[in-house]
Amino acid sequence: MRPALRIALSACCVVAAAGLLLLATDVLRWQAAMQAGDVQFRVAPADADLWKSTQLVPFGVARRLLSLDDDLAYRSSVRTFRRGRVRELAFSDRGLIAVRSQAQEQLAQVARSAPDQAQRSAADNLIGVLALADAALDPSQASSYLLGAIGRFQQAISLDPKSEDAKYNLELALARLPAAAKSAAFGDSGTTRGGRGKAAGTGQPGSGY
Predict the structure, then answer these.
(1) Closest C-alpha to 185, from 133, 137, 143, 138
(2) What would the pLDDT profile of 140-193 be if each residue is shown by its tens digit?
(3) What is the number of other CB atoms lying within 10 angstroms of the CB of residue 150?
(4) DSSP string for residues in 34-65
(5) pLDDT at 191
(6) Could you give the CA distance from residue 197 to residue 176 in angstroms, rounded to a whole number?
(7) What does the alpha-carbon distance between residue 46 and residue 209 come to, in Å, rounded to a whole number?
(8) What is the DSSP string of 108-171?
């Protein structure tokens, strides 16, 4: 082998080894960022810097290698949902209503396309919770919102039969449907615009949400 060729091959090997080292570093950084982001989300879900990592290798190679795009999309949708504060009746808060609309769009995308069945189930459940919140905001259309919520909760349970949150929320929606239907039949709007209170279907795991 000619010396020049040998030197060129050696140089290529060095570059390749350096590239693999940088890629391995990016992989470790992403894994740490995902774990740290999950912990921070429990403390401060509104933080903007969750699940982010610096990258040494460009074009998101490490992120794609770890197949993180779907996980990041799911986490982002849940974060937006939390920012929507569904426990509050946001009659006059247009910003809050806009955040909930954004959450619904993001969650719907997850429900349609996430490869993880558990994530699709969780997304359907949260979309149902948003519908429960809409029912509280607009009693005149509560029956329609509740029927939509029921469908989402049923879909969530079919995807994940162990989802206690979806089961709880389904029972809640079914319990509220008769009163909502009766109110709609008598044309009772029941609105309390300007007030604040607790929205439906939210709580700790095992008690809805």
Answers:
(1) 143
(2) 999 999 999 999 999 999 999 999 999 999 999 999 999 998 877 666 544 433
(3) 20
(4) HHHHHHHHHH-TT-TTTT----SSSTTHHHHH
(5) 44
(6) 17
(7) 17
(8) HHHHHH-S-HHHHHHHHHHHHHHHHHHHHH-GGGHHHHHHHHHHHHHHHHHH-TT-HHHHHHHH
